[in-house]
Specification:
By secondary structure, the chain is an alpha/beta fold. About 35% of the residues lie in helices and about 25% in strands.
């Protein structure tokens, strides 16, 4: 069941340990009731007594169908999640000896991503013996961060993980413009992160 993860968060009916509870809601008069009377009221309404504020003195309860209560809670959580701004992370890949033309091409894409409010994760992939050039890779990533200092702040300095050295950047406040309604970044993302040589 979808609501299983929400079950157990609230005490209901006989699980409520308080001697008296405050009932709120439209169904009954909002006041403090002894627990036995509160349970009887819930039974009369063919509903559950649900403890919604256990730390209040006395605890606050509602008389409501518990399944309906869980459904409404789940719906509210889903709406809140939908309102949260989703941050995309765009990847840009370099080789340890990327030429200036390729570098500038990818730098331009990175600026576009940051202006759209996306984070940028740039990495240098070391293939085979090219791991010997890891210092070169670090210099390249630091140059990249420096060239983007007007657009981004560094979240993570270059870190070597296996065959990859990665740096992560976030857009500076005031740089990000409103997201375009057209998916203009779909192709540029692929162009910026698709290498000519495959990872091994």
């Amino acid at each position: 069941m979808k609501n299983d993860n929400l079950k157990g968060q609230h005490r209901i009916n006989e699980q409520i340990r308080a001697k008296e509870v405050r009932i709120v809601g439209d169904e009954v008069e909002s006041k403090v009731y002894p627990i036995a009377q509160a349970l009887k009221l819930a039974e009369e309404h063919e509903a559950d007594l649900v403890e919604i504020s256990p730390n209040a003195q006395p605890p606050v309860c509602r008389i409501i169908d518990y399944s309906k209560f869980l459904y409404q809670l789940k719906k509210r959580q889903k709406e809140q999640k939908a309102k949260q701004v989703k941050v995309n992370v765009k990847e840009i890949r370099f080789g340890p000896q990327t030429d200036d033309h390729d570098y500038n091409f990818k730098l331009k894409h990175a600026k576009g991503f940051l202006e759209d409010g996306d984070k940028v994760r740039a990495y240098v992939f070391f293939k085979g013996r090219s791991i010997l050039f890891k210092e070169q890779g670090e210099v390249l990533l630091l140059r990249f961060a420096n060239d983007l200092e007007d657009y981004a702040k560094v979240d993570q300095m270059p870190v070597l993980e296996g065959k990859r050295m990665t740096i992560q950047l976030s857009p500076k406040k005031g740089v990000a413009s409103k997201k375009s309604t057209t998916p203009k970044n779909a192709e540029s993302s692929a162009a910026a992160s698709t290498p000519s040589d495959e990872e091994e």
